[in-house]
Amino acid sequence: MMFHQITLTVNGSLFTVMVAPGDTLLEVLREKLGLTGTKKGCDTGDCGACTVLFDGRPVPSCLVLARAAHGKEVWTVEGLSGDPGFRRLQENFVNRGAVQCGFCTPGMLVAAFVLLRTTPRPTEEEVREAISGNLCRCTGYQKIVEAVLAAAAIPEGSRGPDQLSEGGDPANG
Amino acid sequence: MKKNFLYFEPATVAQAIADLKESGAGAWRLAGGTDLLVRMKRREINPDALVDLKNIPELAGIGAEESGFRLGALTTVAALLRNEEAGRLFPALRQAAAVMASPQIRELATLGGNVCNASPAADLVPPLVAAGAQAVIAGDDGTRTVPLEEFFRGPRETVLRAQDILTAVIVPWPSKNCRSVYLKQGIRRGHEIAIAGVAVSLVRREKNRLADVRIALGAVGPTVLRARKAEEFLRQHTLSEAVLAEAGGLAALAAQPVDDIRASAWYRREMVRVLTIRALQFCLAGGGDE
Amino acid sequence: MDKRIIAAGTAEAENRFRRVGKRVPKLDAWEKVSGRTQYIHDLKLPNMLHARILYSKYPHARIIHIDPSRAEKLPGVKAVITGYNTPEIRIGFLNDNPVLKKDKVRQYRDEVAAVAAVDPDVAAEALELIRVEYEELPAVFDPGEAMAEGAPLVHAKKGTNVLNLPWQFSAGDVEAARENSAFVVEETYRLTWVTHCCLGTAGCVADFHPNGNLTVYTPTQIRFLAQRDFMKVFDALGLRGKKVNVVQVKAGGAFGSKLDTYPYEYITILLSYYTGRPVKLVFTREEEFFATPGRQPAIIKIAQGCTAGGQLTFRDVKMILDNGAYTSWGATTPTVMVMPVSSLYKVPNIRYEATCVYTNNIYCTAMRGYGNPQITFAIESQIDTLAEMAGIDPLEFRLINANTPGEVTPQKFQVTSCGLKECLEAVRAGIGWDEKKGRGGGRGVGVAALLHVGGGARIYRSDGCGVILKMDDFGKVTVLTGATDMGQGSETVIAQIVAEELGVKVTDVTVVNSSTDTETWDVGAHASRTTFVAGNAALRAARQAKEKILAAAARILKHDAADLYLEGEQIRSFSQPGVRLELAKLLRQMHFAGGGQVVVADYFYDPPTEMLDRNMSGNLSAAYTYGAHGVEVEVDRETGQVKILNYVCAIDAGRAINPMLLEGQLEGGVAMGIGYALMEELKLSNGKVLNPNFLDYRLPTSLDVPKVQSVIVETDDSEGPFGAKGIGEPPAVAAAPAIANAVYDAVGVRLRELPMTPEKILAAIEDKS
After folding, report:
1. I need a surface site. Which of A126, C41, C724, C729 has the fewest CB within 10 A?
2. DSSP conformation class of C151
3. Partner-chain contact B190 C690, CB within 8 Å
């Protein structure tokens, strides 16, 4: 086997890894870098569970050869969790019931994150279009769409109106 | 998926041609990879070498040229969608891009890939054929231009020789009154392959006469097809509901559909009829600019 | 925020409860949105090997010879197993499925050999080196042909392709009722294969320890039954006195698919045994499609009749189930199908008969609804035809025949709570039924009702769930439950129930469902039973803990225990607001005072239910869930495309413990139902799955599912925990008939097959004109 050495930036850190020509970016993230938050749902680009930010664009990482990721910048759910906008999405996913089995969730969040960066106040149809490449079998998408719209409605830098998981709700005493 | 193969990353078209030559029959050109990688994973393709074209600047870019509007082969479907000028000039192409695959795949998939895979169901091809696009092909004997309509020889078969590279597609400047639309029939709305796709591009001469019309049919034959008899009929007749209906029927006759797991030949043919009439109606209603 | 209808005579939850009835976020949601949840795909054990399975290339063939020698020699391969070098292990409830096939294969997906290697790619490469010589045999793919004389036998020793499972039920006199009916409709409905499409594919890790004990990591829905099943391996290998620990891994979706044990799990276990190393097997998406049993197909011949006034007189159902080559739970779906046949609406005369037939097709298992979506499609589509014949509005027709609380149905179900009428009225309001029905113009409305078990279902000797509850020195609670959370949020619901009873924060309750070693027995996550059965078990354990706490508090405070209650992490007095004691402080006093006492409680709740008798009669469940789906569609007459304009799903949930999670079940179930109705289909040709991918097996995307109006009807069931009933499956049950009825209202065509693709609808429209 002929291995190539590639260098790529993942979640802000530089990594150098040896890859076979047939390795995908998804395999590098999951197997070599231990970033298992990005999921392999189909390995043919049809489910969206492996969506990552690749030079700023949302792509199915199962359809990117690792070799072609040389010199690129990649962000996954693990790294994006530090971003305030991503955090707002996560909070709304949590508080609005947008998560069931959770397997589609990381890819769904990445797709929604890209949408809100380019379209900060999307319509419901725009949200549905943006996540139309991310399959979910549990939720029927409704609570996901609601969570994205709610996250979009929160101004930058504010904590937002949702305090459900942070106390104040009788459910939590 | 086969793990081991040679991997070339040429920086120029000339180098790509040389790499293809060097690696021989088992070499495949790689662009967006959204089709090639899937077929490799299914072991339908087990390449000895991949020639990655993504780092060749000559294949990139969108913009005006004398002969028309140039779409570099590496233009991603998403980049095409984001290009306002392309969208304004070629609404049918924009509509096809917007309904092709999924948002993530559109970020990777390239125009050149969609054309060179020669899938009869490729969404971008009918609007390009209807617009009279030309394929620019570089080979070791120079560059040639082929009408896109003549680029395809059958399912997954093109006029490209082993060392040829599609560098760009040139779409002629549309005339001022040109209207175009792409209509697609599937089963679901998201991430769908066309059961039938119809692109119409037309230019009116006067209220009820057409100066020019082209109708291209996707997913209903071995390649994207032109509905020439329907076009001719439309050019020769004063437009009316009955004439559009007749044109729809002629387009349906031009289709060469087969039964497969996605749809029956009957349904595909029927959809060609319905979509052709609707597309004509849309363009004649002054649409085409959305 | 949520839409709730309190049925007449039901106490309002809002003011009574502080944690029950609240939109509490799922306890594991933060883990999941951070990508930290470990699914089977993410699990790695030291020195772990990777397995792959070689499947049959024929639907029916004799295995002449298997030569694994070239695969064995491939560097990195640690074991190659076949039916010839391992002891036989037969699975399935009729023991008809050898985990590795010997002598004969009976379906395309039959497991012929398996490899364990240092990585999955090497294992895959090794599969290509295994030589299998087959002699193809005549095969049978149509259940009707399979029943005919001289048909190829799938299991030659059985002498017939008809399974020895005589599913029959009857009550009253169907023939006489048919004679005396004013209107009768008789039709045949055909349902094909669909599959779960869990986003996380199936997989497991098996780890045979050096001491001979076995640990299996798996996202199963039935860890205790799986534990029992996996013990077969010890018998086969001649191991005695060894233990199995089944470790529950978070599931990337389940929906019934993980309700049985399957050959791949035993194969992984065997590979671990022969290599002495942990072995992992994870399905590819393609395998998930062809090697995971899906929903049971059915050919349903159904007749119903009514009086001139629209009262149902009889229901006569005869069905043939294509069982595939082996038995899993698909063959037992008649135990659920008979339920709506006998008990949806008041129907005095019933006859039901189901025949399961072996074929060389893929076999089937449970899938959300367990047969109910199939039979409800037939019953509820036909009800509309009957209503039309009787000249009665279909929604009114359903109200005329609706079930009522206190009813005992012909199958001897004791209906405790029943909000069917309220559900139907909610559909009427939510859809705008009275204005929209029968307007035509390509638009139409449809309604369909449903009945499902809502209080467990006794399909096994025990329908119970065990709970161990303990409290720590700081007032925090840990609940060890036998129940399984497959994403639906049962952990959170159990935590809310316990928190309500103990007056603590929901987030102070940790719910553990980790392994058979840790928790007490539960039959599994099926029959929409977890909230009801595991909830009741947790509630009763919490009550015991509360009694211990209050008794101790009474001693310390020298106060009457009956006047004390728990709230706000304190012990408080009903009569004297000044009397307060911090719960955590009390727990420490109990612990550290002389003699020491810690609060631990346990409960095993087995609901008051009966197993069906030979006539399939008996009170199968301790409660029954009713519901109604309503939909407005627009049908494109020229393309056959259906667009859903409005959807209402109203379910009698007894009590919403967590309305947000409940809505999630409704919305997700409806989406699955819409997929079944309009686009999903596993296409088989001579036993082979032709579309094992997400491009050609169409799951509804976010653009295909409408906004669903969820209506929660609360009837406060007398046996349910805080009045709750199970609701996991009902939202997926009645979508197809509701949509079919709406399509009929819109364009006048009746589809009797699913999915109702644009092509089928257009063909029906053209046939009609």
Report:
1. A126
2. P
3. no
In 3-state terms, what secondary structure has residue C334?
Answer: helix
* pLDDT exceeds 50 at position C46: yes
- N-term to C-term CA, chain A: 60
- The separation between CA C19 and the C-alpha centre of its own chain, rounded to angstroms, equals 27
Gap between the Cα atoms of C523 and C529, Å rounded? 10
> Cα(B205)–Cα(B208) distance, rounded to whole angstroms?
8
Q: How far apart are alpha carbons B148 and C552 in whole angstroms?
A: 87
The 10 Å CB-count burial string (b at 16+, else e) for C261-285 is bbbbbbbbbbbbbbbebbbbbbbbb
**pLDDT score for C377:** 98
Q: Does the pLDDT at position A160 exceed 80?
A: no
Residue B203, phi then psi, degrees to nearest 5: -130, 130
Q: How far is CA B159 from the centre of its chain?
A: 15
The DSSP code sequence of C630-688 is EEEEEE-TTT--EEEEEEEEEEE-SS-S-HHHHHHHHHHHHHHHHHHHHT----EETTE
C-alpha–C-alpha distance, residues B261 and B263, integer Å? 6
Encoded tokens for C127? 């599969």
Cα C81 to Cα C10, C53, C344, distances in angstroms = 60, 10, 50
Identify the sign of the CA torsion C229, C233, C236, C240.
negative
Q: What is the pLDDT of residues C68-118, one digit of tens each?
A: 999 999 999 999 999 999 999 999 999 999 999 999 999 999 999 999 999
Q: From C468, C480, C475, select the one nearest C549 (Cα to Cα).
A: C475
- C763/B267 Cα distance (integer angstroms): 8
Residue B18 scores a pLDDT above 70: yes
Closest CA to C106 of C66, C59, C152, C65: C59
Q: Do C488 and A139 touch (CB under 8 A)?
A: no
Give first-to-last CA distance, chain C, whole Å.
47
Question: What is the pLDDT confidence band of residue C5, given thresholds at 50, 70 and 90?
Answer: confident
* Alpha-carbon separation of residue B276 from B235, B273, C239, C757 (angstroms): 15, 5, 71, 21
- Would you say residue C426 has pLDDT above 80? yes
Contact A109, C66 (CB under 8 A): no
Alpha carbons A46 and C697: distance in angstroms, whole number? 11
**Alpha-carbon distance C681 to C672, whole Å?**
12
Total beta-carbon pairs less than 8 A apart between chain A and chain C = 195
Residue C597, pLDDT above cutoff 60: yes
Q: What is the pLDDT of residue C29?
A: 98
Min CA distance, C192 vs chain B (Å)?
Answer: 15
- Burial pattern A77-98, b for ≥16 Cβ within 10 A else e, equals bbbbbeeebbebbbbbbbbbbb
How far is residue C716 from each of residues C605, C625, C629, C741, measured CA to CA in Å? 19, 11, 21, 31
Nearest Cα neighbor of C255 from C439, C83, C488 is: C488
Coil, strand, or helix at residue C24?
coil
- Residues 6 or more apart in contact with residue A54 via CB below 8 angstroms: A25, A61, A64, A69, A72, A73, A74, B107
Residue C38 touches partner A, C-beta closer than 8 Å: yes
Helix axes C394-401, C420-431, angle to 10 degrees: 170
- For A28-39, b/e burial (b = at least 16 CB within 10 A) is bbbbebebbbbb
Nearest CA in chain B to A45: B105
H/E run at residue B52 = strand B49-52
pLDDT bin (cut points 50, 70, 90) of residue C454 is: very high
Of B4, B5, B191, the CB nearest to A46: B191
| A124 DSSP assignment | H
Question: Which amino acid does the sequence have at B125?
Answer: V
Q: What is the pLDDT of residues A125-141, one digit of tens each?
A: 999 999 999 999 999 99
> C686 CB near a chain B CB, below 8 Å?
no
Is the pLDDT at A165 greater than 60, yes or no?
no
